[in-house]
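Before the break, one more example. Copy the sequence into your notebook; we will annotate it together after we see the structure.
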Amino acid sequence: MAWIALVISGLLETAWAIALDRSAGFTRLVPSLVFAVTAILSMIGLSYALREIPVGTGYAVWVGIGAVGTALVGMLALNESASLPRIACLFLVVAGVVGLKIFH
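Here is what the structure looks like once it is written out:
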């Protein structure tokens, strides 16, 4: 259950990062509220997961999921560069996250 909570929390990290960008410095209400709710839920899930998963592993996986998710949303929906080197680097992050889970 801890790993499921960690993955969901990582996905929520992606949501709050995108909402933070869309909030325009907290000048837009809806994205600002989405940011606040998803950030709180993400932290709650991370703290729950860290009851069973070591902090180094849990935090690295959480950040990795959030970073890859945010970069993918940027590339797929926000017109950010989807160059081969960027995609290759994302695969390296995914490999690291999978490795941390396997060798946990």
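The chain is about 80% helix and 0% strand. The chain has a mean pLDDT of 96. Try to locate both features in your own notes.
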